[in-house]
Amino acid sequence: MTTDQDLPLDSQAIPARFVSKGIDITTKKDQGVMKVVKRKGQDGDRPMIGDKVTVHYTGKLLTGQTFDSSRERKESFSFNVGKGQVLKAWDMGVLSMQRGEVCLLLCKPEYAYGCAGNPDKIPSNSVVIFEMELLNFEGELLTDDRGIMRRIKVKGDSFISPNDGASVQVHLEGRCDGQLFDSRDVSFTVGEGEDSGIPLGVDRAMDKMQKGECCVLHLQPKYGFGAEGRPEFKIGPDKELEYEVTLKDFQRAKESWEMDLNEKLDLAPGVKHKGNQYFKDGHFYQAIVQYHRIISWLEMECGSGIEQHKRIKECLVMAHLNLAMCFLKLKEFSQVIDNCNKVIEIDETNEKALYRRGEARLLRNEFSLAMADFQRVLQVSPQNRAARSQISICQSKIKEHDELDKRTYANMFQKFAERDAKVIILYVLIHLTKGLNSNPP
């Protein structure tokens, strides 16, 4: 790559200097974005499409006038590269850079601000120059818990992605600690990848991919093979995985709005059965996907008669109760409470919802609320021995908590009393000393 430490930003000869010293980084090779490296970056990786990149930049007109600068604001700027979130020139330029690199980009209007320009700052059809520094980059995070990170090697050729229930054809290569353990072409149903030995993280990434896309997925153990590992692949417990996945083709499943109510109600038992199978096998996240499908189909439906309304209610109650049980197993207690509340909105005397909410509250140390739930269970079902036992546990926990509070406050008051006593003694000594010093010899 050509470098130039001293390429001026205010010279009338700038375009010619860029042509002679720079490199055309456009796919069309129309000299729409010319790049000159001012400082080489670290050897190694470059950003991939979708990566979150962090940059410093300064934008100038050919006159040398600065129209925008992150450095002047003393605040770096982050975006997902290659996603059309910024100027075309930026996407092209940053994808060509290495971490720590500083470069200049000469950008024609069609790759920058176009004929519109930017009012009060950039005239129409302006050629502009950006000085860019690539501070850092990392893969695109597909989950809030950073469990799935994607880096796109080849961009897909559409904006349509598979949905839950879609049939997909993929080529995948799985690696653990750099060792290839899985390489195959496989077809599976999104949401049911476990049936084909597909890790949860690969399954969950499908709805972010486009046909023809090739990406690398970095999976935390939760989204890989978990605490159990996968003996047939010689993968031990709690291992991070890397999968390279190419989405060759897919057929989307019907969306909720494409199905009538009867079709949804007819499909729900099969989806429930699949979720129950996953639950029994300990695949709770996969079960959650299935129960969520039922809710997404029916939560906005009312039905046209008593019978339909009853079936909708039964399906929603079942799905929320099963979700609550899954989240209880996963120790995600807020989700347990949320799903139980949804059931109680439908059926305020639902014994299972009251009991599971009580369990979640007890595990969150909300003893009084938990006891209230278990007491309501007994009102609905006086013979429920489990609820009676849980009330005893809550009472014991409340007593322990009260005794701990008493000890804590007793110690605290004792310390206050000791401190106050020391202050009083010191006060008396000071005044005695003053009294002695004031007496004549």
Automatic annotation (TrEMBL):
E.C. number: 5.2.1.8
Pfam families cross-referenced by the UniProt entry: FKBP_C
Keyword field: Chaperone, Isomerase, Repeat, Rotamase, TPR repeat
TPR repeat copies, ranges: 351-384
Superkingdom to which the source organism belongs: Eukaryota
Domain PPIase FKBP-type: 50-138, 165-251
PROSITE patterns named in the record: FKBP_PPIASE (PS50059), TPR (PS50005)
Keyword Methyltransferase: no
Reactions listed under catalytic activity: [protein]-peptidylproline (omega=180) = [protein]-peptidylproline (omega=0)
Transmembrane segments: none
Top EC class of this enzyme: isomerase
GO MF, one example: peptidyl-prolyl cis-trans isomerase activity
The protein, known as: peptidylprolyl isomerase
Annotated organism of origin: Neogobius melanostomus (round goby)
